[in-house]
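Translate structure to sequence.
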């Protein structure tokens, strides 16, 4: 028996009857030999961590554009916090931690530069539309490894695709990530807003603080405990009515006071214009795209989608540098 097979046997013996077992995965689009050490979801997790799109998350906006300070969250630190929350819940519920972590680490791989401002811009100018969850799946299926993709399992891709509120993953592990994503951004976006002087803890309505707590740590603790308590030995991931209602209320509070705050979002119109102009440039001049993207068009991909692929892949800093190179006049030298 290989190490992988012994780990798969351990899953059968220990994990909940509602967990996704590695040995029962629907598999990959392209068949490949099994690893003798790692079960399939562990391999998915490893492939995501080592891919280029994951590394670029370190320089992509979470909420605050180009913040001055080392402690504001980026898309990468958001992803790591989602992963930690999700693994805590999955471990307590005896779900598959490897699958949970793979979905969490991959859920935002397709996110644009400048956060949701970049996403709005691409969705507006691209006739095919743009959604970052769909782009995350496209990233792992097609764009990574110079067009070869990561060849992840069906369950991981399903969780990545359906991590937004409008989706519903097929596995409990995916549902854990879906709710952990919300918990993470409620937690860290409030923390960052307080750090930025946009809010104070006392601005949070008293009714919410009574239920969830008056500090980021207290809210995180309340939310995670509530999910675990109410989901134990159930074929679903659920919250109590009281805590779930308070979570919806604080999300609404955050949207009204942070996500649409004119101070926090003062530069977003510039970011959206930058992304729109980059898309228009590469759609109009597809020959300027890197070879990998030209190859995609030669293989039948639509030019609009490929222009989106390239712009969406950019980090904040790279997008600004490319914009400067294309559109900002340079001093003449002789």
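Result:
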């Amino acid at each position: 028996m290989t190490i992988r097979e012994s780990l798969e046997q351990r899953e059968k013996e220990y994990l909940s009857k509602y967990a996704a077992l590695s040995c029962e995965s629907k598999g990959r689009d392209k068949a490949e030999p099994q690893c003798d050490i790692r079960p399939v979801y562990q391999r998915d997790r490893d492939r995501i961590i080592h891919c280029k799109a994951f590394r670029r998350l370190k320089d992509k906006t979470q909420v605050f554009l180009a913040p001055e300070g080392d402690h504001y969250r980026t898309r990468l630190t958001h992803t790591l916090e989602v992963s930690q929350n999700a693994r805590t819940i999955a471990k307590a519920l005896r779900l598959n931690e490897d699958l949970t972590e793979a979905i969490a680490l991959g859920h935002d791989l397709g996110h644009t530069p400048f956060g949701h401002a970049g996403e709005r811009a691409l969705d507006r100018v691209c006739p095919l539309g743009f959604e970052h969850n769909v782009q995350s799946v496209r990233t792992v299926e097609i764009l990574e490894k110079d067009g070869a993709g990561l060849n992840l399992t069906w369950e991981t891709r399903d969780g990545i695709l359906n991590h937004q509120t409008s989706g519903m993953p097929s596995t409990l592990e995916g549902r854990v990530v879906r709710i952990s994503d919300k918990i993470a951004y409620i937690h860290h976006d409030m923390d960052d807003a307080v750090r930025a002087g946009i809010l104070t803890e006392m601005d949070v309505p008293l009714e919410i603080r009574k239920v969830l707590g008056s500090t980021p740590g207290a809210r995180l603790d309340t939310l995670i405990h509530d999910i675990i308590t109410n989901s134990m030995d159930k074929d679903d991931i659920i919250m109590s009515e009281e805590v779930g209602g308070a979570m919806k209320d604080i999300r609404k509070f955050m949207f009204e006071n942070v996500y649409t705050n004119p101070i926090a979002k003062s530069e977003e119109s510039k970011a959206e214009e930058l992304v729109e102009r980059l898309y228009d440039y590469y759609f109009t001049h597809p020959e300027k795209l890197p070879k990998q993207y030209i190859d995609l068009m030669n293989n039948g991909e639509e030019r609009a989608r490929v222009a989106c692929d390239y712009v969406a892949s950019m980090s904040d800093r790279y997008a600004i540098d490319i914009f400067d190179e294309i559109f900002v006049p340079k001093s003449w030298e002789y």
